[in-house]
Design goal:
Elements: E1 2-6, H1 17-26, E2 29-35, E3 38-39, E4 45-46, E5 58-61, E6 63-64, E7 73-74, H2 78-85, E8 89-92, H3 99-109, E9 116-120, H4 132-142, E10 145-148, H5 151-159, E11 165-166, E12 197-201, H6 210-218, E13 226-230, H7 236-246, E14 252-256, H8 263-269, E15 272-275, H9 290-296, E16 300-304, H10 309-316, E17 319-322, H11 327-338, H12 341-359, H13 361-377, H14 387-392
Parallel strand pairs: 1-2, 1-8, 2-5, 8-9, 9-10, 10-11, 12-13, 12-15, 13-14, 15-16, 16-17
Antiparallel strand pairs: 3-4, 6-7
Amino acid sequence: MHLLVVSHSCATALNQEIYARIQRETGWKITLVVPDQWKDEFGNALQQQPDPALESSVIRCAVWRNGSIIFHAYRMNWQRFLNELKPDVIYMNHEPYALATAQVCRANNHSIRVPFGFYSCQNIHKKYPPPFSWLESMVYRSSSFALPITQHVADVIEAKGFKGHQTICPLPLDPERYHPRLKQTPPERFPKSKSPAIGYVGRLIESKGLRTLAMALGMLRDIDWKMVLVGTGEFQPQLEQLLEHEGVKDRVTFTGYVPHGETPRWLAAMDILVLPSETQPNWEEQFGRVIPEALACGTSVIGSNSGEIPFLIRESEGGLIFPQRKPARLAEALRRLITDPELREKLATQGRQWVEREISLPAVARRMIGAFENASITPRPQSDTGAGFVSARHALAQS
Protein backbone atom coordinates (compact mmCIF):
# COMPACT_ATOMS: atom_id res chain seq x y z
CA MET A 1 0.00 0.00 0.00
CA HIS A 2 1.07 3.57 -0.71
CA LEU A 3 0.08 5.96 2.09
CA LEU A 4 0.20 9.74 1.64
CA VAL A 5 0.45 11.73 4.88
CA VAL A 6 0.23 15.54 4.97
CA SER A 7 1.32 17.08 8.28
CA HIS A 8 2.48 20.50 9.45
CA SER A 9 3.58 19.01 12.80
CA CYS A 10 5.98 16.69 10.97
CA ALA A 11 8.14 19.67 10.10
CA THR A 12 9.65 18.53 13.41
CA ALA A 13 11.60 15.32 12.84
CA LEU A 14 10.48 13.85 16.18
CA ASN A 15 6.88 13.80 14.96
CA GLN A 16 7.87 11.73 11.92
CA GLU A 17 8.87 8.77 14.07
CA ILE A 18 5.36 7.30 14.15
CA TYR A 19 5.31 7.05 10.33
CA ALA A 20 8.81 5.57 10.25
CA ARG A 21 7.54 2.96 12.70
CA ILE A 22 4.48 2.21 10.52
CA GLN A 23 6.65 1.87 7.43
CA ARG A 24 9.05 -0.47 9.24
CA GLU A 25 6.26 -2.71 10.54
CA THR A 26 4.23 -2.90 7.33
CA GLY A 27 6.65 -2.42 4.44
CA TRP A 28 4.27 0.17 2.98
CA LYS A 29 5.47 3.03 0.85
CA ILE A 30 4.86 6.28 2.75
CA THR A 31 5.07 9.75 1.24
CA LEU A 32 5.11 12.53 3.81
CA VAL A 33 4.37 16.13 2.75
CA VAL A 34 5.48 18.77 5.27
CA PRO A 35 6.02 22.54 5.22
CA ASP A 36 9.51 23.49 4.08
CA GLN A 37 9.71 25.24 7.45
CA TRP A 38 7.21 25.86 10.21
CA LYS A 39 6.87 28.45 12.97
CA ASP A 40 6.05 26.88 16.33
CA GLU A 41 3.90 28.40 19.08
CA PHE A 42 6.91 30.37 20.34
CA GLY A 43 7.64 31.86 16.89
CA ASN A 44 10.70 29.68 16.26
CA ALA A 45 11.25 28.53 12.68
CA LEU A 46 11.51 24.73 12.51
CA GLN A 47 13.44 23.32 9.58
CA GLN A 48 15.00 20.00 10.53
CA GLN A 49 16.47 17.05 8.71
CA PRO A 50 13.86 14.31 8.20
CA ASP A 51 13.83 11.09 10.17
CA PRO A 52 16.57 8.93 8.55
CA ALA A 53 14.09 6.12 7.84
CA LEU A 54 11.91 8.53 5.83
CA GLU A 55 14.61 10.67 4.23
CA SER A 56 13.69 9.69 0.67
CA SER A 57 9.96 9.91 1.40
CA VAL A 58 9.65 13.47 2.74
CA ILE A 59 8.51 16.24 0.39
CA ARG A 60 8.93 19.81 1.64
CA CYS A 61 6.39 22.31 0.36
CA ALA A 62 6.15 26.09 0.82
CA VAL A 63 3.01 27.28 2.60
CA TRP A 64 0.94 30.42 2.87
CA ARG A 65 0.23 31.72 6.39
CA ASN A 66 3.15 29.87 7.96
CA GLY A 67 2.56 29.03 11.62
CA SER A 68 -1.23 29.26 11.47
CA ILE A 69 -2.56 25.75 12.08
CA ILE A 70 -6.02 26.55 10.72
CA PHE A 71 -5.33 29.15 8.03
CA HIS A 72 -2.18 27.86 6.35
CA ALA A 73 -2.34 26.23 2.92
CA TYR A 74 0.24 24.43 0.78
CA ARG A 75 1.60 26.13 -2.33
CA MET A 76 1.03 23.15 -4.57
CA ASN A 77 -1.24 22.07 -7.39
CA TRP A 78 -2.65 19.15 -5.43
CA GLN A 79 -4.82 17.74 -8.22
CA ARG A 80 -1.82 17.34 -10.51
CA PHE A 81 0.34 16.05 -7.64
CA LEU A 82 -2.19 13.36 -6.67
CA ASN A 83 -2.61 12.23 -10.26
CA GLU A 84 1.15 11.75 -10.52
CA LEU A 85 1.68 10.18 -7.07
CA LYS A 86 -1.34 7.84 -7.10
CA PRO A 87 -1.46 6.95 -3.36
CA ASP A 88 -3.89 4.31 -2.12
CA VAL A 89 -4.92 6.21 1.05
CA ILE A 90 -4.58 9.87 2.06
CA TYR A 91 -4.29 10.89 5.70
CA MET A 92 -4.38 14.55 6.68
CA ASN A 93 -2.71 15.13 10.04
CA HIS A 94 -4.81 18.31 10.20
CA GLU A 95 -8.15 19.34 11.67
CA PRO A 96 -11.22 18.82 9.43
CA TYR A 97 -11.98 22.58 9.42
CA ALA A 98 -8.44 23.62 8.43
CA LEU A 99 -7.84 25.15 4.99
CA ALA A 100 -5.08 22.65 4.21
CA THR A 101 -7.43 19.70 4.85
CA ALA A 102 -10.08 21.11 2.53
CA GLN A 103 -7.42 21.93 -0.05
CA VAL A 104 -6.24 18.32 -0.34
CA CYS A 105 -9.74 16.85 0.09
CA ARG A 106 -11.10 18.89 -2.81
CA ALA A 107 -8.19 17.86 -5.02
CA ASN A 108 -8.82 14.20 -4.17
CA ASN A 109 -12.53 14.59 -4.97
CA HIS A 110 -11.63 15.98 -8.42
CA SER A 111 -8.85 13.51 -9.25
CA ILE A 112 -7.98 10.04 -7.92
CA ARG A 113 -10.81 9.71 -5.34
CA VAL A 114 -9.02 7.36 -2.94
CA PRO A 115 -9.95 6.83 0.76
CA PHE A 116 -9.36 10.05 2.69
CA GLY A 117 -9.13 10.67 6.42
CA PHE A 118 -8.20 13.33 8.96
CA TYR A 119 -6.94 13.94 12.49
CA SER A 120 -8.66 15.95 15.22
CA CYS A 121 -7.98 17.12 18.77
CA GLN A 122 -10.94 19.55 19.05
CA ASN A 123 -12.89 18.46 22.13
CA ILE A 124 -15.37 21.37 22.19
CA HIS A 125 -18.40 21.43 19.88
CA LYS A 126 -17.68 24.71 18.07
CA LYS A 127 -19.66 26.21 15.23
CA TYR A 128 -17.46 27.96 12.70
CA PRO A 129 -18.57 30.76 10.36
CA PRO A 130 -18.55 30.31 6.59
CA PRO A 131 -16.48 29.40 4.69
CA PHE A 132 -14.97 27.17 7.40
CA SER A 133 -18.28 25.52 8.25
CA TRP A 134 -18.72 24.66 4.56
CA LEU A 135 -15.20 23.30 4.32
CA GLU A 136 -15.66 21.21 7.45
CA SER A 137 -18.94 19.72 6.16
CA MET A 138 -17.33 18.90 2.83
CA VAL A 139 -14.45 17.11 4.57
CA TYR A 140 -16.85 15.10 6.75
CA ARG A 141 -18.89 13.99 3.73
CA SER A 142 -15.81 13.09 1.70
CA SER A 143 -13.86 11.22 4.40
CA SER A 144 -14.07 7.53 5.19
CA PHE A 145 -12.02 7.57 8.41
CA ALA A 146 -10.85 9.83 11.24
CA LEU A 147 -8.18 9.54 13.96
CA PRO A 148 -9.36 11.59 16.97
CA ILE A 149 -6.94 11.76 19.89
CA THR A 150 -9.55 11.06 22.60
CA GLN A 151 -13.08 9.73 23.01
CA HIS A 152 -14.35 13.25 23.70
CA VAL A 153 -12.99 14.39 20.36
CA ALA A 154 -14.65 11.41 18.66
CA ASP A 155 -17.96 12.39 20.27
CA VAL A 156 -17.65 15.94 18.90
CA ILE A 157 -16.90 14.70 15.38
CA GLU A 158 -19.90 12.36 15.46
CA ALA A 159 -22.18 15.09 16.82
CA LYS A 160 -21.11 17.31 13.93
CA GLY A 161 -22.25 14.73 11.39
CA PHE A 162 -19.24 12.61 10.53
CA LYS A 163 -20.41 9.08 9.71
CA GLY A 164 -17.11 7.38 8.85
CA HIS A 165 -15.02 5.00 10.93
CA GLN A 166 -13.16 6.47 13.91
CA THR A 167 -10.06 5.06 15.60
CA ILE A 168 -8.91 6.81 18.78
CA CYS A 169 -5.18 7.41 18.51
CA PRO A 170 -3.56 9.34 21.37
CA LEU A 171 -0.56 11.53 20.65
CA PRO A 172 2.30 9.00 20.69
CA LEU A 173 5.70 9.27 22.30
CA ASP A 174 8.86 7.23 22.24
CA PRO A 175 9.37 5.63 25.71
CA GLU A 176 13.07 5.25 24.92
CA ARG A 177 13.48 8.97 24.28
CA TYR A 178 11.43 9.84 27.38
CA HIS A 179 12.93 7.57 30.02
CA PRO A 180 13.66 7.60 33.79
CA ARG A 181 17.36 6.96 33.12
CA LEU A 182 17.63 10.63 32.08
CA LYS A 183 17.41 11.51 35.78
CA GLN A 184 21.11 10.61 35.96
CA THR A 185 22.08 13.47 33.60
CA PRO A 186 20.02 16.58 34.45
CA PRO A 187 20.43 19.71 32.27
CA GLU A 188 23.33 21.93 33.26
CA ARG A 189 20.93 24.83 33.83
CA PHE A 190 18.67 22.85 36.14
CA PRO A 191 18.97 24.41 39.65
CA LYS A 192 21.34 22.38 41.79
CA SER A 193 19.59 21.67 45.07
CA LYS A 194 18.36 18.66 47.02
CA SER A 195 14.96 20.31 47.49
CA PRO A 196 12.03 18.49 45.81
CA ALA A 197 11.64 20.01 42.32
CA ILE A 198 8.21 21.11 41.07
CA GLY A 199 8.17 21.68 37.32
CA TYR A 200 6.02 23.30 34.65
CA VAL A 201 6.58 22.97 30.89
CA GLY A 202 4.58 25.04 28.42
CA ARG A 203 3.57 28.54 27.42
CA LEU A 204 3.55 31.13 30.18
CA ILE A 205 -0.02 32.35 29.68
CA GLU A 206 -2.72 32.97 32.26
CA SER A 207 -5.12 30.33 30.90
CA LYS A 208 -2.57 27.67 31.90
CA GLY A 209 -3.49 28.39 35.53
CA LEU A 210 -0.25 30.16 36.46
CA ARG A 211 -2.00 32.70 38.68
CA THR A 212 -3.51 29.81 40.64
CA LEU A 213 -0.09 28.14 40.75
CA ALA A 214 1.56 31.26 42.22
CA MET A 215 -1.08 31.49 44.94
CA ALA A 216 -0.70 27.80 45.76
CA LEU A 217 3.07 28.12 46.06
CA GLY A 218 2.56 30.97 48.52
CA MET A 219 0.71 28.53 50.78
CA LEU A 220 3.75 26.23 50.89
CA ARG A 221 6.33 28.59 52.33
CA ASP A 222 6.68 26.38 55.42
CA ILE A 223 8.11 23.36 53.56
CA ASP A 224 11.15 22.79 51.35
CA TRP A 225 10.79 22.89 47.55
CA LYS A 226 12.00 24.59 44.37
CA MET A 227 10.11 25.41 41.16
CA VAL A 228 11.34 25.31 37.54
CA LEU A 229 9.27 26.88 34.75
CA VAL A 230 10.25 25.84 31.22
CA GLY A 231 8.82 28.06 28.49
CA THR A 232 8.06 31.64 27.55
CA GLY A 233 4.95 33.77 27.28
CA GLU A 234 3.36 37.15 27.82
CA PHE A 235 2.24 36.32 31.37
CA GLN A 236 5.78 36.01 32.73
CA PRO A 237 6.08 39.60 34.07
CA GLN A 238 2.76 39.31 35.96
CA LEU A 239 3.73 35.85 37.21
CA GLU A 240 7.01 37.16 38.59
CA GLN A 241 5.09 39.92 40.40
CA LEU A 242 2.67 37.37 41.86
CA LEU A 243 5.53 35.17 43.07
CA GLU A 244 7.19 38.22 44.63
CA HIS A 245 3.93 39.10 46.37
CA GLU A 246 3.63 35.53 47.69
CA GLY A 247 7.19 35.66 49.00
CA VAL A 248 8.48 32.71 46.96
CA LYS A 249 10.11 34.28 43.90
CA ASP A 250 13.59 33.33 45.11
CA ARG A 251 12.62 29.62 44.95
CA VAL A 252 11.50 29.81 41.30
CA THR A 253 13.70 29.48 38.19
CA PHE A 254 12.56 30.68 34.73
CA THR A 255 14.50 28.80 32.03
CA GLY A 256 13.06 30.50 28.96
CA TYR A 257 12.56 28.58 25.73
CA VAL A 258 13.85 24.99 25.59
CA PRO A 259 13.72 23.07 22.26
CA HIS A 260 11.25 20.21 22.28
CA GLY A 261 14.01 17.66 21.76
CA GLU A 262 15.68 18.74 25.01
CA THR A 263 12.58 18.64 27.24
CA PRO A 264 12.91 14.94 28.24
CA ARG A 265 15.96 15.71 30.39
CA TRP A 266 14.16 18.62 32.06
CA LEU A 267 11.09 16.49 32.78
CA ALA A 268 13.19 13.67 34.19
CA ALA A 269 15.00 16.09 36.51
CA MET A 270 11.70 17.15 38.09
CA ASP A 271 10.09 15.35 41.01
CA ILE A 272 6.58 16.65 40.26
CA LEU A 273 5.14 18.06 37.03
CA VAL A 274 2.17 20.39 37.47
CA LEU A 275 -0.33 21.38 34.77
CA PRO A 276 -2.92 23.73 36.36
CA SER A 277 -4.79 24.67 33.14
CA GLU A 278 -8.11 26.53 33.38
CA THR A 279 -10.95 26.02 30.91
CA GLN A 280 -11.92 29.12 28.89
CA PRO A 281 -15.17 29.78 26.95
CA ASN A 282 -13.51 28.65 23.70
CA TRP A 283 -10.73 26.36 24.96
CA GLU A 284 -9.90 23.53 27.32
CA GLU A 285 -6.94 21.19 27.48
CA GLN A 286 -7.19 18.88 24.47
CA PHE A 287 -4.65 16.30 25.59
CA GLY A 288 -2.03 17.71 27.94
CA ARG A 289 0.83 15.96 26.17
CA VAL A 290 3.36 17.03 28.77
CA ILE A 291 1.64 14.74 31.30
CA PRO A 292 2.48 11.43 29.56
CA GLU A 293 5.89 12.83 28.64
CA ALA A 294 6.60 13.44 32.34
CA LEU A 295 5.23 10.04 33.34
CA ALA A 296 7.44 8.33 30.76
CA CYS A 297 10.40 10.08 32.38
CA GLY A 298 9.49 8.72 35.81
CA THR A 299 8.00 11.97 37.13
CA SER A 300 4.68 12.06 38.99
CA VAL A 301 2.11 14.67 37.95
CA ILE A 302 -0.53 16.99 39.34
CA GLY A 303 -3.18 18.37 37.00
CA SER A 304 -6.38 20.38 37.09
CA ASN A 305 -9.75 19.04 35.95
CA SER A 306 -9.64 20.96 32.65
CA GLY A 307 -10.42 19.05 29.47
CA GLU A 308 -8.57 15.77 29.07
CA ILE A 309 -6.18 16.24 31.99
CA PRO A 310 -8.20 14.35 34.63
CA PHE A 311 -8.88 11.46 32.23
CA LEU A 312 -5.17 11.09 31.47
CA ILE A 313 -4.31 11.08 35.17
CA ARG A 314 -7.06 8.63 36.11
CA GLU A 315 -6.22 6.22 33.29
CA SER A 316 -2.51 6.33 33.98
CA GLU A 317 -2.81 6.35 37.79
CA GLY A 318 0.25 8.55 37.63
CA GLY A 319 -0.76 11.58 39.67
CA LEU A 320 -3.27 13.71 41.54
CA ILE A 321 -6.15 15.89 40.29
CA PHE A 322 -7.35 19.17 41.79
CA PRO A 323 -10.29 21.46 40.90
CA GLN A 324 -9.17 24.21 38.54
CA ARG A 325 -8.95 27.78 39.92
CA LYS A 326 -8.68 26.40 43.48
CA PRO A 327 -5.21 27.36 44.76
CA ALA A 328 -5.80 25.83 48.21
CA ARG A 329 -6.61 22.45 46.62
CA LEU A 330 -3.54 22.66 44.39
CA ALA A 331 -1.41 23.51 47.43
CA GLU A 332 -2.87 20.49 49.23
CA ALA A 333 -1.92 18.17 46.34
CA LEU A 334 1.56 19.67 46.07
CA ARG A 335 2.15 19.35 49.82
CA ARG A 336 1.13 15.71 49.70
CA LEU A 337 3.62 14.81 46.98
CA ILE A 338 6.41 17.06 48.19
CA THR A 339 6.37 15.41 51.61
CA ASP A 340 5.82 11.82 50.44
CA PRO A 341 8.60 10.57 48.13
CA GLU A 342 7.29 7.00 48.26
CA LEU A 343 3.92 8.12 46.86
CA ARG A 344 5.69 10.11 44.14
CA GLU A 345 7.64 7.01 43.13
CA LYS A 346 4.55 4.79 43.14
CA LEU A 347 2.58 7.18 40.93
CA ALA A 348 5.48 7.65 38.54
CA THR A 349 5.96 3.89 38.17
CA GLN A 350 2.27 3.34 37.42
CA GLY A 351 2.34 6.18 34.91
CA ARG A 352 5.38 4.83 33.12
CA GLN A 353 3.73 1.41 32.74
CA TRP A 354 0.60 3.02 31.28
CA VAL A 355 2.64 5.00 28.74
CA GLU A 356 4.36 1.84 27.51
CA ARG A 357 1.05 -0.03 27.31
CA GLU A 358 -1.24 2.61 25.78
CA ILE A 359 0.50 5.56 24.08
CA SER A 360 3.98 4.43 23.16
CA LEU A 361 5.01 4.57 19.51
CA PRO A 362 4.44 0.80 19.05
CA ALA A 363 0.97 0.93 20.66
CA VAL A 364 -0.28 3.91 18.64
CA ALA A 365 1.33 2.65 15.43
CA ARG A 366 -0.69 -0.57 15.70
CA ARG A 367 -3.93 1.44 15.97
CA MET A 368 -3.04 3.64 13.00
CA ILE A 369 -2.07 0.64 10.85
CA GLY A 370 -5.46 -0.93 11.56
CA ALA A 371 -7.24 2.31 10.63
CA PHE A 372 -5.37 2.66 7.33
CA GLU A 373 -5.88 -1.00 6.43
CA ASN A 374 -9.58 -0.72 7.13
CA ALA A 375 -9.83 2.48 5.07
CA SER A 376 -8.16 0.82 2.09
CA ILE A 377 -10.91 -1.81 1.85
CA THR A 378 -13.89 0.36 2.83
CA PRO A 379 -16.03 1.94 0.08
CA ARG A 380 -15.30 5.65 -0.19
CA PRO A 381 -18.14 8.16 0.50
CA GLN A 382 -19.56 10.11 -2.41
CA SER A 383 -17.44 13.18 -3.15
CA ASP A 384 -18.82 16.61 -2.35
CA THR A 385 -18.61 19.17 -5.16
CA GLY A 386 -21.90 20.95 -4.56
CA ALA A 387 -22.77 24.62 -4.55
CA GLY A 388 -21.81 25.13 -0.92
CA PHE A 389 -18.23 24.22 -1.59
CA VAL A 390 -18.09 26.22 -4.81
CA SER A 391 -18.50 29.32 -2.61
CA ALA A 392 -15.98 28.06 -0.08
CA ARG A 393 -13.19 27.12 -2.45
CA HIS A 394 -12.23 30.76 -2.95
CA ALA A 395 -10.75 30.52 0.56
CA LEU A 396 -8.26 27.89 -0.66
CA ALA A 397 -4.89 28.83 -2.03
CA GLN A 398 -4.20 26.89 -5.22
CA SER A 399 -1.24 27.47 -7.47
